[in-house]
Amino acid sequence: MSGIASNPVEPPRYIRHQAPRPRSEAKRSHIIDAAMRHFAENGYHAARVGDIAATLGIAKGSIFQHFGSKDGLFFEVYKRAVRSFSKYLDAPADVRAAGFFDVLYYWLVRTEHMLREDWIPYRISLLGNYGTDLVLKREINRFLTTEDPYGTGAFVRFGLERGELRKDMDIEMIVSILDWTMERFQDALLTAELDPGLFRRQGEMPEKKEARIRQFLEVLQRAVGAVSASSVHSNRQIRRIAAADLVARTKMS
Q1: Please, which pLDDT band fits residue 207 given cuts at 50, 70 and 90?
Q2: Residue 191 domain-assigned?
C-alpha cells in the first residue's frame, strides 16, 4: 500500500529502534492485549490510556514508558491485529488450485464470517485505516508496505506464474492496486456487519453483497487480469465456491 508523502521532520517518538528485553517484552505484550479490547470497544479518540492502566492495575506512566504515547500504543495494537489475519495463500489447496481470482472470491465471501470469529482485530484495523490522524496513518502505511502482512507480493507472483495476471504491468503496481482496492472493499463489507453507524454506512441484503463481490472481481480482473482462457473466473467456479460457503454457513447457524 502506498503511504503518505514522507515527513521531513524526525520520525514519531513511538517508532522504536531497540528490541526490548524479554521481561519488558512480556509486560508490553500484556499491555497490548488489554489495549486491543479497550480501543476496539471505545474507538481511537475516546480511548484513554489511564483507563487501560487502571484495568491492568499499573501506573499510566508505565504505559508511556513502554510506548511513548497513545499513538505509540495504538500503533503496536494495530500491528498485532493485522499480523493475526490470514494471508492470501492461506486459502485451502483446492481454492488455490482453482486460481488467483478464486482465492480472492474465497476471502471476500468469508469477510464477515472472520469478523464474527474475532471482531476485535477487525475493528482495530478499521480504526487504524480510517479513525487516526495523518501522522499515525502514515506510519501504518509504511508498516503495511514494508512488512506486507497479507502476503500480497507472494500472492501476485502466484497469479503471474499461473498466467492469470498481466505481465505488461510492473509487479509493484499490481500489488498496490490489489492492496488499495481489496482493503477498501473489504472494509465496506465489514462496517455493515460490525457497526452500521460507525462510518455512517447502512447494512444491505446478502444478495446485494454477493452481486457487489462479483462485480468487484470482474472490474479487478479487467484491470490486472491476463487476457487468456486461463484467467477467466468462470460462473461455474463462482457457483461452486458459493455453494460450499452456503453449506458452511448453514452448519454454523
Answers
A1: confident
A2: yes
